[in-house]
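Lab notebook page, bench 4
Experiment: in silico fold of construct C2
Operator: M.H.
Input chain length: 78 residues
Purpose: comparison with the prior construct
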Amino acid sequence: TYLYRGLEKLGLCAVPSAANFILFQVGNRAAEVTDRLMRSGIIIRHMRAWDLPEHLRVTVGLHEENEAFLKSLEEALR
C-alpha cells in the first residue's frame, strides 16, 4: 500500500502486517530517528522494549497523515 511503497522508496524494510500499524527497520539510528519524528509531531514507537532496537512502529492513518509521516521520516533520516 501507500505506506509500504513510501518506506521502500526510502530504502527501508517493512514487515508485512494485517493490523493497523507497520513495523519497519531503520538500523542503528532508530533512537535518533524516533526523537526527530516525535519533535516534529509524529507519534512513533521505538521497539527496543520488544528486543527490536533497530525497528520502529507507526500506526496507519489518514492519507494526509501518512504523507506527513513519510515526509517527516525522510527528513529525520538525513
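Observations: Residues 33 and 49 are 16 Å apart (CA to CA). The first strand starts at residue 13 and ends at 15.
Next step: discuss at group meeting.
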